[in-house]
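Recall the central idea of this unit: under ordinary conditions, the amino acid sequence of a chain determines the structure it adopts. In this exercise we apply that idea directly, starting from the sequence alone.
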Amino acid sequence: MRPNEQIKKWLADMKAKPSAQLDARVYRAIEEAQAERKQTPSAGFFLLNTWKMIMRTPMTRWTAATVAALALATSILVLDKTAPKAFGLDQVIEASKGIRFLHVKMHPANDQAPIEFWIASDESGHVAKIRNYQPMTEDGAKLITWTPERTEVWFQTKHGFLTLHDDKLVKGMQDLLEQNQPRQAVEKLKEEQKAGKVTLETQQPDDKGQPIKITMVGKNMPAFKRVYLIDQKTDLITSIETYRAKDGKDVLLTRMEFLDYNVPIDDKMFSLRDQLPADVTIADQTTQVIGVAQGSLTDEQAAAQTAREFFQALMNKDYKKAGLVMGGELEKYMKAEYEKMNVTAIISVGPALLQTNWVKRGYMVPC
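Accordingly, the structure predicted from this sequence is:
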């Protein structure tokens, strides 16, 4: 018979026939119940001394036994209710379901300005719209928006604006969403743990205002670890930090901060046209055919032909054609930039030289 069941039986016996022997048996049962529930020593000490003080008065023996038993049952009930539930990755996955809007910042460790994303997805989980600010690129600061209809790139450092359409970008944008979507990140973490690829250590503070901390270490790359901070009230990730061990210390590499969950994003955020300053040079590749048709030409030959046609357009004062060859830059901007240049003849063009440290299939063409 379990200690709590013994207490109930003996209390019934004591009501019918009080005795000191039954009182002692109730006290032992309480001690056993304490041990079973793993009460702290201080709680046990308090009950023991309180019991001795009350039992000094013979008139209160039966009442004291009843009060102590009820107090024990009450304390067990309260402990069961207040004990924090064991935390698991499934809670984060469940809480992250149905999230369609994200606002994310990626902080590099070198105190540079953070990369920032605003991402909207549809009800099926596919990316619908993205706004991305990149403060440090090979072209300087860029602000980019993407929708299935068009991509806009504001080259803020170079004062240029480009509108284009490329179906190949859809997969890249979907990959970007999944890389920044907490649900996918935790599902992957769970799979890696199940496969034995990583070890996880979970710290859950009693203070609900403090985040749960999950530390992940890869078994094949122990020098790197990732720390997930999770809000205890919402079970949502607030940040993901990546560290590398160096000289016995963990050095922060990146920190991904999740600022907003499911806060609707104004459609104006996904169009840059109304935000451009007056001096920005605009190029539009969505309404016109740009560049030079490659046909059967090799990449090197096509690059040389593109340079030749550009200078030929300048010779002919055909600034619209020059703008199309240049990637869709509008005629008025080309005229303002090149009208004072007097190109009279093309002496030689090429050969084109592949630039391995530049964009893919990027060439330099001496003219």
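The radius of gyration is 35 Å.
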